[in-house]
Design a protein that fits this description.
alpha+beta, five-stranded mixed sheet, 24% helix, 634 residues
């Protein structure tokens, strides 16, 4: 039900806006919650909560380390879809709702502020007819096959049309209706855009308003569909079919941002702003005389920031933020309120809940406050009555909206995604011994030493990696060759053994030294250099020999090197050391000197000149790769 944005805080240059979006679902096909805020954008589930569980906390089904970001989840059938971030980039992830097992993970873009407080992604995927639509922090919008995770199309209209108003990270989840994908862009003559859901091609684009962090909301007015978008300084509606502007209402001038979802119950449209600017309600109509939006009331009775309100039976439920914005440290002041939608009259208010994300489940409000506590209260305009509460996390900024489907409550707190069961006993997943298991994806050493060097190393990091890597890439192989030459007359056997020892040493020492010094000591490029130098040496020698075996040895060696490069790149992506792939560019500098070195070694063996060439080759390889890496990650 909620949308979240973390924005620029006055006098706080390190802060950035974030926009969080709720999607939730049900296992039953007819009740699947595959769109943002449910199939009708109301954030209201018809399921019922079971509150008589034993103990203080309901059964934990599973918990998994999912990665960074504020994306919520979409649930369809037995599958949960979300977006997350690792140093290697941003991903759409598919998880088995029953077990927590990851089914697939597809990378779609680079990471967003991975070492900051507001790391992306912020949008939530939307599923329609077996296709999953997603949006990334850099303005990517795309479509994936929901079954396999393969990308069907991906575009970046924010970059293409120089979109403004989303500089702290694009956050609008795609709204998908009638074969079209509606997204705010904020570009000149492209403030709002409709894309073809099958191809990603532009159907229409219009307006020149700056965008913000709230997505497009499709609404039906008199049987006809409008696309309502809360831009940076205005609320604008367009004809869903043609893109024609139907009406607009100007809000604050200058810098502003809107993250909370508009709330619609025909004919009333509710919108709330941060910065204590309050809310407005409009009465929408659309007939032969045209479309109109008449302001019914405007008041500071409620201001929404990182969470959105919802309405049930003509009453709004939402958290009124009394600070200018939600507090960076999780101490936001304000009260939970119930307000009559048509009049703005406050039915009740309570400070007991804290700053909460809200969804309606049956006859209850299901809320997650920013301190990591789940609260269940009666869904009633008469009074606030709390029924149960339990702690799910000690994180202070739990602003990702929870999800409830098929009796399963899914919550994202920090980098962990957890599933609790609050449904009827007959629907409880049969997990046996695996119930409540905690799944980890990264090894312990990775979590211990993780830092900015994983994605944006400084020259001080590079310098230490070079000297230690030099010992691994040159010192280890030379030592092994010296020892092996005493046992084998054919020195190439010693070279082969040296390669294996050097590569394994690079892998093992990366972990051991990283843990010892509590920072990343990245030696994998040294292992790559050893493999490349051996293959180039074989090719150099083979080019001077006419025997049939050498010719095929050269071909096999080049194929082996290509496979090693692919394995190295995949290892970097899998472990989250995204910048490691940049060292592959060092092979370009190594190629000529590697061939020369191979021929010299064949003639002279390991004399002083050969040793100097080994050091020079590694220096050129590492220096070229390091320069490219620092340039790309600066």
């Amino acid at each position: 039900m909620l949308v979240t944005s973390l924005r620029f805080r006055a006098g706080r240059l390190a802060a950035c806006p974030v926009f969080l979006i709720l999607s939730f679902g049900s296992f039953a096909a007819a009740d699947d919650w595959s769109h943002i805020r449910g199939p009708d954008y109301s954030a209201h589930s018809a399921e019922d909560l079971v509150l008589d569980w034993d103990g203080e906390v309901p059964p934990l089904v599973w918990s998994v380390h999912i990665g960074q970001g504020f994306s919520s989840s979409t649930i369809v059938g037995n599958r949960l879809y979300t977006q997350s971030q690792k140093p290697a980039g941003q991903f759409v992830v598919c998880i088995d709702l029953r077990t927590g097992r990851e089914l697939w993970r597809t990378r779609y873009g680079w990471s967003w502020q991975p070492d900051g407080q507001w790391s992306g992604p912020f949008a939530t995927p939307t599923l329609v007819s077996g296709e999953l639509f997603f949006a990334g922090c850099y303005g990517e919008v795309g479509c994936m096959d929901a079954d396999s995770g393969s990308i069907k199309w991906q575009v970046n209209p924010v970059t293409d049309f120089k979109g403004k108003g989303v500089g702290f990270g694009y956050a609008a989840s795609p709204a998908v209706e009638d074969g079209r994908v509606y997204v705010p862009i904020g570009g000149k003559n492209a403030s709002v855009m409709a894309l073809d859901a099958g191809t990603g091609e532009i159907v229409w684009k219009t307006g020149s308003d700056r965008a913000s962090y709230s997505p497009c909301l499709p609404v039906l007015v008199g049987g006809r569909k409008q696309i309502v978008t809360f831009m940076q300084n205005s609320l604008v509606a367009h004809d869903a079919r043609t893109g024609k502007e139907l009406w607009r209402d100007e809000w604050e001038a200058g810098y502003d941002e809107h993250a909370a979802w508009p709330v619609y119950r025909e004919p009333y449209l509710f919108c709330a702003s941060p910065f204590r600017e309050g809310a407005r309600v409009y009465r929408l109509s659309w007939d032969d005389r045209g479309a109109r939006a008449e302001r019914v009331w405007g008041s500071d009775v409620i201001s929404n920031d990182v969470t959105s309100s919802l309405q049930v039976d003509g009453f709004l439920y939402g958290f009124d933020v009394r600070d200018a914005q939600a507090d960076d440290y999780g101490d936001t002041s304000g009260t939970l309120k119930c307000i009559e939608l048509a009049t703005g009259h406050v039915q009740w208010e309570s400070a007991d809940s804290g700053h909460v994300s809200i969804l309606a489940v049956g006859a209850h409000l299901l809320m997650l406050n920013e301190g990591g506590t789940i609260i269940v209260a009666d869904l009633s305009p008469d009074r606030y009555t709390e029924r149960r509460r339990f702690q799910v996390s000690k994180e202070k900024l739990c602003w990702t909206p929870p999800v409830f489907a098929q009796g399963c409550l899914v919550v994202k707190t920090g980098e962990r995604l957890s599933c609790y069961y609050l449904g009827p006993e007959e629907g409880m997943p049969d997990l046996g011994a695996s119930a409540g298991r905690v799944l980890e994806e990264e090894p312990a050493w990775y979590r211990t030493v993780y830092g900015s060097s994983f994605y944006a190393p400084e020259w001080s990091d590079i310098w230490s990696w070079y000297w230690i890597g030099l010992l691994v890439a040159v010192g280890f192989p030379l030592l092994v060759v010296r020892v092996m030459s005493r046992f084998f007359r054919w020195s190439w056997i010693g070279v082969g053994v040296a390669m294996c020892v050097g590569v394994v040493g690079a892998l093992i020492l990366t972990e051991l030294l990283s843990v010892r010094f509590e920072r990343l000591i990245f030696l994998w490029p040294a292992g790559l250099y050893i493999v490349a130098q051996l293959v180039l040496g074989v090719c150099a020698v083979g080019a001077t020999r006419s025997e049939w075996g050498w010719d095929w040895g050269c071909r096999g060696g080049l194929l082996f090197l290509a496979g090693a490069c692919l394995a190295y790149y995949q290892l970097c992506l899998h472990t989250g050391i995204a910048m490691g792939g940049g060292f592959l560019t060092g092979l370009v500098a190594l190629a000529p000197i590697g061939v020369w070195l191979g021929r010299r070694y064949q003639r002279l063996g390991l004399e002083r000149g050969t040793l100097m060439l080994l050091i020079l080759g590694y220096t050129l390889f590492f220096g070229c790769g390091a320069a490219f890496t620092v340039w790309k990650t600066a």
